[in-house]
Structures are given as structure tokens and as C-alpha cells.
Amino acid sequence: MPYRSIIAGADSAQADVAAATSAATEAFAGFRATSPEARADFLDAVAAEIEAARAEIVEAAVAESHLPEGRISGEVGRTTGQLKMFAGVVRRGDHLGVRIDPALPERTPLPRADIRQRQIPLGPVAVFGASNFPLAFSTAGGDTVSALAAGCPVVVKGHPAHPLTGYLVAQAVTRAVEKAGLHAGTFSFLLDTDPAAGPQTGIELGQSLVTDPRIKAVGFTGSRGGGLAIAAAAAARPEPIPVYAEMSSINPVVILPGALATGDTDALATAYVGSLTLGSGQFCTNPGLLFLPRSEAGDAFLAAAGRATAEAVGATMLTEGIAQAYEAGTEKLRSTDGVSVVGQGTAGDTDAPAPQLVEAARLAGVTDEVFGASGVVVRYDSIDELLPSLDSLEGQLTATVHATDADNEAAAQVVSALELKAGRILFNGWPTGVEVGHAMVHGGPFPATSNSLTTSVGSLAIERFQRPVAYQDVPAAILPEAVRDDNPWHLARRIDGELQLP
Amino acid sequence: MPYRSIIAGADSAQADVAAATSAATEAFAGFRATSPEARADFLDAVAAEIEAARAEIVEAAVAESHLPEGRISGEVGRTTGQLKMFAGVVRRGDHLGVRIDPALPERTPLPRADIRQRQIPLGPVAVFGASNFPLAFSTAGGDTVSALAAGCPVVVKGHPAHPLTGYLVAQAVTRAVEKAGLHAGTFSFLLDTDPAAGPQTGIELGQSLVTDPRIKAVGFTGSRGGGLAIAAAAAARPEPIPVYAEMSSINPVVILPGALATGDTDALATAYVGSLTLGSGQFCTNPGLLFLPRSEAGDAFLAAAGRATAEAVGATMLTEGIAQAYEAGTEKLRSTDGVSVVGQGTAGDTDAPAPQLVEAARLAGVTDEVFGASGVVVRYDSIDELLPSLDSLEGQLTATVHATDADNEAAAQVVSALELKAGRILFNGWPTGVEVGHAMVHGGPFPATSNSLTTSVGSLAIERFQRPVAYQDVPAAILPEAVRDDNPWHLARRIDGELQLP
Fold this sequence. Notes:
The structure is a homodimer. Chain A is built from 14 helices and 19 strands. By secondary structure, chain A is α/β, with parallel strands linked by helices.
């Protein structure tokens, strides 16, 4: 067997949750005390170790995910870029959120004490990676790197769809832990090492990880059912813990009339189907629902989108289970009252089902996510008909608007409705690309995520794994570096409520 | 009947949840669109209206809470000061958390889109105030003001222990809403108007408020049982929502040897008992557990604390129910194996039970909160015996250390242990005062709160009621003011990851 669990730096035949979480707890004291520079260097080292193992990681990930080599190779770059971005965030130190309210000994009627606040890491974090991004949202993906950046040891539950990829990445992280001189428990990787026992073993492993009292937070990317099960288990613990689950989204697209009046309708429709079918539609940001004007131009768009879909060929999906769920979901859509097929592509093979585009007479019954290249078009006559439809949607990761300046009045109303529904609103593009940056939000109201107050992509994600602590009249000699008067880490600080740069 | 519910600005005989939340939803669109200046002016106006009604509010609150007039009068000032502080926070605008990653059209292999992030309010918020702070943690207290500051309409469930106080404050807020020209649904106040039906009616009212689909977050201050019930109801909704419950804390105090070696042990013990019995001990930050060196000086401290407790007289508690729970809790402590009474004061009357101080041979069985003037002392021989005890504690709002420079080595270890347990660590003082400022944390790990990532006192509390939204390539003409290039609100912004002051 070429891959196993890695617990506290050593290969293990058993996915021993208690051993991994105990090691993580032991590692926590030292890891949280690392200076920004040391912790950032460690993140850079993880990136370097992944880069050094790039060839074998890419080979494994292509074989396990059926995704094209170019896509996987790009995802390695995205993963290491993400690590380096968080290294930069840690070096800058703004995430420490330092606030100082100096003492006011002369204040009447009561003097004010000296109060200083910083953010500290929560403790060991459990990470459940995604099937569809075997690198960027998995073993050393966004959840792992933001938890490590915050100073939290991480225990990853390896994804059964890409065990070797996960193992190779975990080895790279483990090498970086060792070279940085960190406690080996800083990172562990648990793999269901008994494939004969079937997926149930993996679910049990996940449950025992989430309910282990040493785990203090969870990052998850996957299905709504999986995310809700983990959130329920975490809430039922004697000490409930936060779960950041990125789950389900159909990513509505609104085409406003102007976008059809001036542009090349065929090209717009083709670009839409391109986004819909990219990577077999296996993106959490896949545009599964499109609102289209009921007009001649709308008819032309729909016909062109139908033709483009008919020309599309299914590519092998990530797992058999995902392909079967896609077949069931698209079949259910086709048999829903008021739904007609606009275009259907060609299946590649049994694990590469055909892309599908349908038109639905009404929104009710067609808003469940079908993971894969499945699109639903709903027509509207006027902005007054459109807005209540947008208001009725569940929470989303993204919402897209196609419009020109002529649409500005309607577009402003649409944005106002959509910002209550989605974490990211984009214009005249497609949602399937998620930039890793400081302003990105990959989040949104339930059921897009289990916690709409944050993001799982971008530098804000670090805040999920920290909590504030106030230090009142703590002697200077034992104050943490972050809140000392001499500001040894050159941090931006909020003094008496006012931001001051270093 | 002199007081009733206030729904959308009008007196109502019924505590009609749907009417209040519908009005709040209608108010939300306009309220969230207010400029920082307009919203801040509104908060200042609430403070002014409360100040204008000070005399009748103080009279009602003293009568209903049995707390002394000086304390209540001070609490009015704290409440209005808190409103003004949040007005300042809103005017400054840092809570909008603006981040801009400018477009990089020339970037290879792919150009970067223009991405801008701001925080937006969650929507209508339900607030359950505390019994023990009828003003500062109630109708227009910390939860209400931070939600309003974020741009969320608020529906308060009036506390049955101070209905008239709540009604008078709600009238003041309502007058400010009206004068500011805001939608009347911006603030509503629901009171169980059928006292004959008993407390069950109030619990049902609370449940229907929390489970109303128009409510998007909850602020709560009260018992562990009450907070857990509300958190469970919120988690079971079709759309789960965040609950910020401040619940249970015994606020450990650690006396290190140096504090007994140099100071006046009698004075220290008297000050401790003063904090323990202040306001009948009815503070969430009441120091209910004290770790004391097993030494001669420790014996002297304990004897002095016992004498001070014996001299203390019980004052009437907030409600009969609270007094009964205190009697039951102190009785249970006395009958716990290994517990001996160190000092017992005098009862005032049946609703003013006697303060009590006990010594416990071990920590197990004595760490449940007894709301009121009940203290438990546990002795320790060495720092090596103390630290595991601290590690075994549940989450706390505060942790206090008494020490001198001679204790620095031990104190650093104690701080390192306590910061994982408490939201605020203070030295050589008492935890019962909670400063309203920018650096304050009134929060902490479960069960001190249901969400350790935030605070219910201080300006950081506003972040509980906001979520981030990213705008990608949104046309300048319809971008929200907060993220426009010309920065009309003069906000601090993070450009490409770097903080820039206005």
C-alpha cells in the first residue's frame, strides 16, 4: 500500500484520531508562540516542499481526479501561491487585531485600567478537504493554510477520492514541519486505511475527529448533507465548536436586457455554456441558474446556449458517486413539471454523463444544487418580476450580473437584492474562477456556508480560527509581544479606537 | 396597565412577533442604506432620549431591580456612553472593513479582476436582555446598540424582571427612530403582556422570535440553560442563524505567593469579598472561584476572607427565582464532599440570602456557576499543581491574577494557561467592572459564551452582526459608497492587502 495516515510526522497503519489530536494539542503551545517571521517562514517552506514534489503530486492528482494535467498543474500553483499569500499576511501581522486602550488614572468618577487586546489561535483544527480541488481546497488548501497561519495545528481527514495525492501533499507538509523544527503534531493526516470497509469507515472517522474534545474548530468543503452532519455533531458536543462548512450553491446569473441588446448574443451564450461545462461543471461556483429576459433576444440567447450545450461532451467526473448523483439530479429536473430540455450534450462514458441545459416555467422545484454541468434557465418579463425571484433564493456563494450602462437603474436594484443572498457579486464575467486575494469572499448565507460571517478563500479566512483576548493591567514584563508598548513586531494597532500604522 | 409592547413605533396589546419582524424587514432596506453620519446621529439621538427620560427610567429600574439608585444612575450613564461610543465607531467607519484588490489586466497567465469587499449588516436581530443590568445589557444595551450600529433593525424581547424599565427605554428609542425619520420597524419591543399566564408565555414568545425566518441573528445575556435553548432553536431552523449568548462563568482568581508576601493580606481578602458580594454578587464577572496558596499567608488570607464574609449582609436579589436558585446552589455546595464553610454572612430577608464563602478540597463538583455572592476557595501547593487545575476549567469571561514582580515566572505560565480559558485576563484588580471601550473583551470560550470569536461589550461587538460581500468588476456607477475609488466616507481601506489610512 503506497499511502497511509501520517500522525505526528510518522506513517501509521491506523487512522488514530486520539493520537493525532493529542499530538496536535502538544504541538499547540509551541506553535502558537512562534513569531510572525518564524510562522511565515514555515508556510513558505510548505509551499517549497509542495513545489519540490510537484511532478509526483500532479501525476497522482491527474490519475485520481480525472482532471486534465493543465488544470491540476495550475492548481499546484494556486496552492503554493495561497501559502505564500498567508505567509505575507502573517508577516504583516494585521490579523493579530491589536487594540490598546491606555490607562486613564485621573479619570473620574473611576480611573480606567490599561486594556490591550489581541487575537489568539483557537487550538487544533480539523480539516475536511473537497473532492473537486484535490490541492487548493484539500490537504494543504485554504482551510489548512488559514488555520496554520492563525497558529492552529491541523488534523486533515484525507479525502477518499484522492488518497495518494493527499498523502504526497501531507508528506510535503510534514517535511516542512520537521525542517522548521516544529513539534511533529503541528500537522497530521488521517486516511481511512481500510478501503474494504467502504465509505462508512470514512464517515465514522470524520465523526470521531469532529467530536474529539481536543479539536476546537472545523473547516469543511463538500456537500450540504456532509456539512450539516458535521455541524450537527459539532453543536452536540459538550463543548460546541465552530464549523466552517462550504456546502451548496447554484450561483444565479442575471442577464439584464442591455447585455442582449448590444453584444454578441451567440458569444455570450457560448461563454455561459463554457463556464457551465468547465471541468464537467464540478465547481462550487458553477452557474446552475440563469435568469433571462422573456424577449426575442432572450430567445436567441437560449437557442444559442442550447446549441452550445448540445455540442458539449461529458468528461469523466471525480467519482462514480458524483456521476450517479448528477444523473439522478438531471433526470429529476427533466421530469419536473414545467421543465423542458433546451440542450443536451453527449455522454463521454458512464462516468462522464452528458451536460444538460433546461428551461423551467417557474423557480419552485428547480433550485436544488445538481453538482455538475447542469443549468436551469428561468425567464422574466420585467425587473418587478425578477426581484421577488431573487429575494426568494437561498444563500449563494456567487451571483453574476450581465449588463451594460443602459441597465444601471435595474442593476442597482439587482445588486441590492443579491448582496443579501451571496458572498460575491460579479459583473459581465463568470463565477467559476475564484481569485485568491485580500478582497475575495468565498462564502455566503446558508446553505452556501454554515457561517456567513467569513470566507474560505482569501486572507480574511484567517479570522475564522482566532478569538480575541483582553489583557487588563498585565505587567509589562509578561505582556505578549503583540501588545507591548515597544511594538517589537511593528504591528498596525488601534489605540483608543484609532488605527495607527507602524 | 402602564406598559405594553411597542411594535413599529406603536403601542400594542399583543406581543405580535410576526408584526414586529415584518416591520423590521421593511425597515432594513432603508436602515442599512443610511450613511455613517446619519446612523451615528441616530445613535446619539437614542442616548439623548434616554438621558431626557433619566428620572423616570431610574425610578422604574430601582423599583424593579432592587438595585441601589447610585448603581442604576451610573448604569444610565454607561448605557448612553456606550451608544455614543458606537456612534463614534460608525462615523469612523472602520467596521465596514473595506478591502480593494485593484484589477491587474496585464497579469499572466490570467488577468485579475477588480475585487472590492465591504461588510454589510445581517438583517433584523433579536435581543434578549439581562436581568442584572436592566439598562446596559438590556433594551438599549450592548447587543441592541451594536446591532443598530451595524445597520440591523432590532426586536427586543423585554425582560420580565424589569418590564416598565424596558418599556420606558423602548419609548425613548422609538422617539429617536421617529425624529431621525427612520422606518418605525427599525426598533420594536415585545413584552409578555399576559403576566397571568406565567413565565411559560415569555419562553414561548422568545422561541417564536428566534425561529421567525425574518430574524437573522440573536443577542442574548442570561443563564446557561436559557442560552443553550435559544442556540438549539436557532440551529434547528431551516436557515440556521448565529446566536451570541453570554451565559455562565465563575471567573477564577489566582493568588500567587508574592501577592501574599508583600501586601496587606487582610486588605486583599476584604477587597476580594467586596467584589464577591457587590450587588449581591449578581454579575456575570463575579469571582466565584479562587485559587489560594497552601501556606501560612494563605491561611491568613482565608481567615480574613471568612471574617469579611461573615460581616456581609445579603441584599434583595433581582427576582425571587434568582434568590431561590442561589439558596439551592449554596446549599448544594455546602453538602458537597470535601467542602467546608469559611464564612457565612447574614441574610437580609427571604429574597436577600446570606453571602457564603467555602473551601473545597478538590475542584471536581464545585465549578458550576452559583449566580450571587457565593465563593469557592481551592488551595494549591505549587505552580505544577495549579496549572493542570487551570487547564481543566471550562471557558470563562474573566480570569484574575494577583501577583508581584517576584511571581513573574509563574505568572507568565498562568497567563498562558488562562488565555485559552477566558476572554479577559486582569492583574491585581477584580473582574466585576467591565470597561466599555475598544480593547475590551466580554466573551470567552464555551460556556462563558456560545461564540468565543467575539465580545458582547466594546466596539468589536459590532462585527457580530455583519458579513463580508465582494464586488467583482461592478461598474463604478453602482458600486456602494464604501468601496468607491473616491472614498466619499474617508474610510481606512486595505489596498492589495496593505492598510491605508484616509
